[in-house]
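Retry 2 of 3 after timeout on previous attempt. Resubmitting structure tokens to design endpoint.
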């Protein structure tokens, strides 16, 4: 057998593992979008993880620990698991089934202009690029300049993706169709709301640091859709993420944790940006935005 045939066999073996992984993601997430499943079957996850062997985060008996893959064979990364980007900082390539489920509820479309905040090494930016096609664009922001440079290199095959090493909370963006945050936000940046096109969506982990020493935030994944001049909003699931620098502050975190403590987040129906005093329907009354139990048209 020639070296070329050996190489082809390896490529085919990894492609088959990727297809199996996409089916695993399908059933674990409940995602019905064939386009989303195809994106997971297409994007080479190992490209975004650095050199193997890799550290896979496992949970047993309520304890989290890393298990190292036996070697650098790419088939090891095709499981519905978190894989470490930086073990010291607990930075991971996040849960595939969670992201498939979240994205399936926000309906990325061909030609969408997307802002991806906290893109990490770029894996989910590539997934987004597959979903919005060559006529769309993804502006991927990463505050860590070293990781942003890795993302830029990793994402070179996706020409519709542009990576910037900057703070997503302060970036002066143009109008967009879809904003995705891969880091926990306690105070929703007003520009994200104001720059959203009609019909546009926001997918963001509204999450707070329980203490300054915590490296993770705890909260809920929030979905927002602009409907004319109103915004519908709902929580999708629990969410735990690395904090989004610039969107975490003590007062916002305290308000969010108090609201979550009420246990009635499923009643949230809208995002309000009109100036108003706190009302009984206000679930989380922020400084310039509010999550409300009112319907968006009320």
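Retry 2 succeeded. Sequence:
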């Amino acid at each position: 057998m020639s070296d070329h045939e050996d190489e082809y066999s390896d490529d085919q073996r990894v492609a088959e593992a990727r297809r199996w992984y996409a089916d695993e993601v399908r059933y674990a997430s409940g995602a019905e979008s064939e386009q989303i499943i195809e994106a997971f079957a297409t994007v080479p996850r190992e490209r975004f993880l650095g050199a193997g062997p890799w550290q896979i985060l496992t949970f047993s008996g309520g304890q989290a620990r890393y298990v190292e893959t036996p070697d650098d064979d790419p088939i090891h990364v095709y499981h519905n698991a978190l894989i470490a980007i930086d073990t010291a900082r607990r930075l991971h390539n996040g849960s595939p089934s969670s992201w498939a489920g979240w994205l399936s509820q926000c309906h990325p479309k061909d030609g969408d202009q997307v802002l991806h905040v906290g893109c990490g090494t770029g894996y989910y930016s590539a997934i987004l690029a597959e979903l919005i096609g060559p006529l769309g664009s993804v502006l991927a922001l990463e505050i860590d300049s070293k990781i942003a440079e890795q993302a830029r290199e990793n994402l070179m095959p996706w020409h519709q993706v542009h990576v910037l090493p900057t703070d997503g909370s302060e970036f002066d963006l143009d109008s967009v169709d879809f904003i995705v945050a891969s880091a926990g936000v306690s105070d929703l940046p007003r520009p994200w709301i104001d720059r959203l096109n009609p019909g546009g969506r926001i997918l963001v982990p509204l999450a707070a640091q329980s203490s300054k020493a915590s490296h993770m935030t705890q909260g809920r994944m929030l979905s927002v859709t602009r409907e004319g001049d109103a915004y519908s909003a709902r929580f999708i699931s629990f969410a735990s993420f690395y904090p989004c620098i610039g969107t975490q502050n003590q007062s916002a975190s305290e308000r969010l944790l108090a609201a979550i403590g009420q246990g009635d987040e499923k009643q949230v129906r809208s995002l309000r940006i009109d100036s108003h005093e706190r009302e009984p329907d206000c679930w989380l009354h922020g400084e310039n935005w509010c999550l409300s139990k009112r319907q968006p048209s009320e």
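Attempt log closed. The helical segments are 3-29, 34-42, 96-104, 123-132, 145-154, 190-194, 250-261.
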